[in-house]
Amino acid sequence: MNHVRLRKKMLIVYIVCVLIPIVLTNIVFYQVTTHNVRQQKLSDISAAMDQIRRDFLDQMDVAAGISSIFYTDAKFNEAIERSYTSSSEYVDAYYADIYATMYRYSPIYKAIRDVAIYTPNPTIVGGGGMRPITEEVEASSWYRALALGGGDGSPIVIRSVNETSHGPETVFSFVRRLDYFGQKHGRYSILKIDIGYSAISALMRNATLQGDVYLVGPEGRIEAASGSAERQQEQASFLPEALAADAISVSKPIANVDYLRGWSFEGAFPEHRVLQDVYKSRDFVVYLALPNILVPTLIILWFTRSLSSRLARILHQMKRVRNHSFEPVEQPDYRDEIGQLTNEFNRMTLQIKSLIDDVYLADILRKDLEIKRNQAQLHALQSQINPHFLFNALETIRMRSLIKKEEETAKIIHNMAKIFRRSLSWDRDWMTVREELELIHCFLEIQKYRFGDKLDYSVVADDEALGWLVPKMSVLPFVENASIHGIEKSKRGGSINLLFRVEGSALIAEVVDDGAGMEPEELEAIRGGLQRDEPFGDHVGIQNVYRRLRLYYGERFELQMDSVRRQGTSVRIRLPQREEIAEPAAIRGNS
After folding, report:
1. Pairing relation of β-strands 189-196 and 112-119?
2. pLDDT digits over 443-470, tens only?
3. Angle at CA 210, nearest 5°, toward 205 and 216?
């Protein structure tokens, strides 16, 4: 990528980070939306088809229930099988035993067009729903279908045509042989319940389906249809392969009903009509995607042009500088990075031209002299602050004090030299509590020498704690802080108490003074400065110790500070064992 021009890089960024994500997002969104809408539509279609099947079964169940009453009514069956001696005897029996059963259900179930009994009893006079079995009846489709499939007394459903005064009427006939009580006239009587075709087709038309619904009989013929196929393909064979190529097929067979075994509802729904809502959402996705693509494209083209043209101008001018043409880039004073780069390039070009033309050689000689003089001054300064020189000077003063019998002064100078030597020697980052106490003792002796009776101190350390390894000078700054800010600021003086003890797997170090103390605001400022790692006042030593402890222990150490004005300050430090911490590599190398 370092060899690709900036304009091409920006184009790659645009394609990878803008164009491709937007296109993929919209494609995925469209696919997911299409899938969800399609599944919802299919679910709605399946539910509507189930409802049609249930309504159709309800109609057939009514006919089946009525036929069962006729089939098992002993009085009714005895009346139609009885041989009558005269017409008047039959008429009396008709109104007494047949009429009530024949016309009990027609007024209640409007879908039932006719209930008729076809009987071979020659003594029954036709009329009132009672009809003889004639040759014409025997030649009818429903009678032949019953002869083929209803021999065991089970009913059948067949589509048939009845001749009425208004012309032929298509019906669905529920036909059943009345053989429950046997036969007396050589053949069984037959019950025929006609259900109007309009009632069945209404079930299919009322469904809010965007397509064609077919009622297919057991022989694969279309018995009823709705939609564009209504009255066009009835009684034709239903061929799924003849449906439109984009049609969505849904089949709902009628199972668990013996007299409708092999019947089914078939649906054919053009996909473009089912998914017309999806196509609307597709247009919405396109309209939404176009501005999402065009607007970033125009902005990025404008932005890229702004960058590349100005950078090309600077590059062209730099090439001219290589040929000793020190002319500035002419452009308005822009404030972005390229504008600043251009201004700095112009300034550099003018400076180079001035140096070459005016003071190049003289300035080189002058700077060489300055460098040599600075190096000499640096060497002199280093020799002046050589630690060995300071240690030797302190040792000389101490020896002179001993010669003059000033033992107290010599002791203080010795303590100062020890503290100074330890503070400058960082070949060891860890020391034992015993070594830390030696430095603290030296410091407190010096402070005792300064303040006299104004300062008292006590140090208590468990034997187990003396060998504990702690970071170098991690407690001394708190002792120094207690002395300078606590005891020295207190007019009445005070005392400093130190405690080192081991609790479980941690070392507890406490520094307590009864000096000047602090106001709550000052204490909160110190605590906040430690947490935010900000400098605060004269407590730099505390902050340095806190940073070092956090470097060594991370978040596994505890530092607690409490103070009350004119009562004193207490500091409690809890440090885990050294084996429990992850020591930085640089520190391990110096230990």
Report:
1. antiparallel
2. 888 888 777 788 899 999 999 999 999 9
3. 55
